Structure formats: C-alpha cells, structure tokens
C-alpha cells in the first residue's frame, strides 16, 4: 500500500521497506522507564503490546461502546475470521472510560462524546500503536451526525473538518497559548470510501465538509436545549451559511481526529451517517429501527473498504 | 432551606412558598408537543417524569458510570433508605451514552470526559428536572483531578473554575459567535462542604480554584502524551504560574458545569480528589488500592453533606 503525501517518513521508509510507521512526536517518551496508558488500563510494563497489537492495520473508532462491539462482530463475519456468534472480550475491561475489541488486523475502540474525550483516547491509541511497532495503519471514525440538505440516512465522508465559523482548523491551548492545527483528512482514502459506496449500491454517500462543534445544543443552533437565546430564523440563517460554505454534516469529534491523524502520520477518514436534516428539525422523529439501520451504514461501508484493501494487499504479495 | 443570592426567582418564590425552581431559559420549549431527551433515552411522551423524578433534591454527577453506580449504593446505605446490597437499575439502560441511578431524593448520573460530554448531559438533566417540576435542587460533581502543591489524596472544593490562562470564564460558541460565561460556584455550598470535611476528620480538604482544560495531555502540560513540543522547565513554569494564580487542581468539566449551574439556578459544587501532585509527575504511581481510596473521598464528603442537609430540612419541618 503506497503512503499518500505527508504520510511517510524518509528514515523509516528506508528501514522498513516503504512501510509507514505510526509516529509519536515526543522526545520525553524514550526516557520513560515504562508507559502506562491510564484510560485504557494497558501499559508497557504490564502488557506485551507488540504481541497483542503488532498486526493491527485498521482502527475503527466511534462514540458508543455498544456500537464498537457490534462493529467487531460485524467485521469478524465479513472477513470470515471467526464464528460471528463468538464473544469478543473488551481489552480495556479494567476501566469504564473506553472499550476496545480486536479481530485479526482490525481494532475497534470507543471514544465517548466530544473533542476532549476522543483526544485522550487518540493520544493513548497512537502511543499504543507506536509501542506495538505497528506499520501502515488506517484509522476511520464511524459515527452519527446531523445532516444539512441531505436525505436522512445519507452517509457523509469528510473532506475537511471545519469549526463553528466554517474554517478548517482546530484551536488548541498548550501552556496557555493557542496553537492552530490543520484539519484536512486523507483525500485518497475519502475517494476510496466513495467508490466503495458505489460498489455496494445500498445507500447514498457524499464527500463534504463536516462542522465539528463543542456543544450539541447551543453549539449546533438547536432550539431544544435547556438554554436558547436565538430565534428559528437565526438558526436557519446560520445553517444556510454553513451549507453554502460546503458543510454537509455536524458532529463533535472530527477536528481533533483529523489534526491528530496529520500529526501522527495515520491515514484517517471520518464516515458519519446523518440521522436527520437539521434544516427541518432538531429532534429525531424516525423510528428506532430506521435510526438503527442508518447507524449501520458507516459500518457496512468501512467493512467493505477493509475487505477490499486486505484483498488488494494479499494479491500484491502473491 | 433558604436560597442563596442569585438562586431564587421572584415569581416562583411567591408561587411555591420560597422553593427555588430549576429553570430552563428557552422560549421554544413550551411550544414543543413533546421533548425527547435523546442521550438519556427518556421523554415527556414516553415517561412520567414528575412521578419518576419529582422528589429529587440532590444530583451527583461524575465521569465514570461505575463510580456513579457505586455512589448510589453508598448513599443508599448512608441514608438507610434500602438494603445496600440491593441492585439499582440504570434508568438510562436504553442507551450507553450516560448511566443514571436514583435512590430517594438522590440522583446519580455519569457524564463522560470533557466539556462537550458533560454539557450534553447537563442540558438534558436540566430539562428533566424542569419537566419533573423539581424544586430546591443541589448538584455536585464528584471527580478526580491532578493536584498542584497538595499531598495526593487531598480533596479540592472548587471556588472558581478557571481556563488555561487562569481566567474564571467559559468561552462558548453560539451561531459562530463567542459568548463568555461566568464560572463562579456557590460559595455557601463550598463552605458547607469544607465544614463537612472538618466534621469527618478523615482527610484533608481545601477550597481553591480549579483549572478546566480541553485536553488531558498537551492541555495540562503533561510530558507523556503522543505529542509534546515543550520542555520539563516549560511545564514547571506553567504549573507554577497556575499555582500562584490560586489553582489547586486540574480537571476537564468544571467550567461548563459552573456556567450551566449559574444559568439554570442550580446550587452547584465541584468536589475532586487529587490523584497525584502534577509538579512531581504526570503518570499515576500509587497502587490501585490507594487510588481507589482517594476516589472514595468525594463520595464520603458529599454523602455526609446530603445526610446533614436532609436532617436539617426534616428538623426545620418538625
């Protein structure tokens, strides 16, 4: 698998025959006697991370622990790797902060809600992949979102993650100073996902910008929070501006996900189902069954991509 | 129980004989046919919220669902309300986003990690208390944190929640515009909690400012994240400045908790155990048992306060 621009490192390319390594960027780590990944309850002195995770090639992350368990069951069936009715143990069973499951080269991890929650998980995941000496890892967030100008159930693959002013950036405060990080995602991977949707022909998928907000209610112009100081017209004007700038869906994790993929050299994509059209309402009115079927769509799309990439990798080696 | 300044409403004081109502501030809510609290999987058309929650006087919230279940078991024993070995069902069992438990007048709810995660929970909790017509509700966050200049295990009751530049404010983006909200907490309640610690004489408790950050690693000047672009000296200089400004602990939820308490008229406090002294390290080196005993301390303190307030309320009525 060729690495896209910005996702390779000359030194490691030479050492590892073009395999792209997952990078931490922290000179302090090598001086640490051991590294305890607190929120995973895993550590370098208590676990053999290369043996447990060295073969990981795909990481799928999503907010809900239940959904990430159901994903590993689904992918096990898709890859014919195990009896799909088998039980998959939670690798992070010693903590209730995040849940983690693995089958073959696929790791599935929950990240909770919002930028701070997913950022902690990604810091520890990137260190885990580094300690395990993983190479050529692709990471995909599968989530749910509110849509803009799309039929509910449409899947959006993120081109750029933008903030609440529609700019493709993440402002992060380090030692009290604001640092701005880029939130572009891997275009080649996004296009491969779009092609997968065409292969499948089961549901609509589009590539568009994703607005990432710090709040679900006031931050997404909802009228149904505990507090609301604006009118229906203010809301519609804001969502129209978002649509005109290229935003097709709204969620709460993509910006820091994109920024940390760029920094670490992970090839990353964000694939979210839209559960409703926010220009038509704020609350979910579809039935439980319909919503459940929408939530399955990113899993189906990413399952197809993983199968296709593993087949391509196997045939290039044979 | 008398309401403190800023926590009463003239109209409701008259109607409810000095009882202080929980307020939403949203003119759109009354026009809604029903209100579905999506992340709790509870709604006004599917649940009798006044019957289920109308007697709630105390809400305790914390990041971990396990800890909030253990709190309800603990408080049930403390208040002699039920067999402490009984099973307490998760009221939000239909979702894995948040967990909720109740015993008598005490509600215990998990909120996940970070400002966005707790903000969603608080929006829906405030609406729940409003729909249930609760009055005189006290809400306390019981959590864990990194300490500054304190012996590990010390409990900090927050005076003000400050941001990463040590200012008592929360910047929130609404319709693309930044709104600044105050993060003061209820001083009388903080002092009552300090008095409870003196009554108990089991562990050290201080009142101080709490720094609330958006990130656990770079945002808290840790040297052990996946990325770190500063030195040990930069870290120490920053933490020293934080200490000098009055910060005694660092966590990730207090600012929006304080802001939403102020906006809704909930009497709020933040009570966190410090698990380590951040000026001496970043990773937790204490044993599992020691850390567990530190985590119990906010529960013990808040359990004592609830018992004391219920006894005072009973004797004032008799």
What does this structure look like?
The structure is a homodimer of 318-residue chains. Chain A is of the alpha/beta class and 318 residues long. The two termini of chain A are 14 Å apart. In chain A, the strands form three sheets. Chain A has a five-stranded mixed beta barrel with strand order 6-11-10-7-12, surrounded by four helices. A two-stranded antiparallel sheet of chain A has the order 1-2. The interface between A and B is large, with 66 and 66 residues.
List keywords for this structure.
homodimer; 318 residues; alpha/beta; 5-stranded mixed barrel; 12 strands; disordered N terminus
SSE blueprint:
2 copies of one chain form a homodimer.
Chain A: H1 10-15, E1 36-37, E2 42-43, H2 49-53, E3 58-62, H3 65-78, E4 100-103, E5 106-110, H4 115-131, E6 138-147, E7 155-162, E8 169-174, E9 177-182, H5 187-200, E10 205-212, H6 232-244, E11 247-251, H7 254-264, E12 267-277, H8 288-317
Parallel strand pairs in A: 3-5, 3-6, 6-12, 7-10, 10-11
Antiparallel strand pairs in A: 1-2, 4-5, 6-11, 7-12, 8-9
Helix pairs in contact in A: 3-8, 4-7, 5-8
Binding site for substrate (chains A, B): 220, 222
Domain Nucleoside phosphorylase (chains A, B): 57-306
Pathway (chains A, B): Pyrimidine metabolism; UMP biosynthesis via salvage pathway; uracil from uridine (phosphorylase route): step 1/1
